[in-house]
Amino acid sequence: MSVKLYELAALVRSKNAGPFALTIDVMFAGRAEYVRVRDSGVLDAGGVAALYGVPVEAVRVFHYEPALAIKVSMPRTVPSGSRLDGDVYGGQFHAPLVMLDVPPLPAAS
Description:
The chain is of the alpha+beta class. It is 24% helix and 27% strand.
């Protein structure tokens, strides 16, 4: 059964990585949850690019198993602090990710 990303992650946060870039951290309390999300592909560059409306080649996804964490970096669609910016600190950009459906891992054969 699918579950939402927020049900598996211990922490999902976003923040600016300078005025033109954004980083999103997804951290897990257990290895099983980390592996489920990592292996599901829901946090791949293509899916993130489509969700945020940025070019796929500009999205970087990093898996860091020792910390049970996944980091996503991408350009902001508007610069931080610009007239059109609705979140100058980048602290609310993680919201679309938390509602992603994460399917169960296939049963081992």
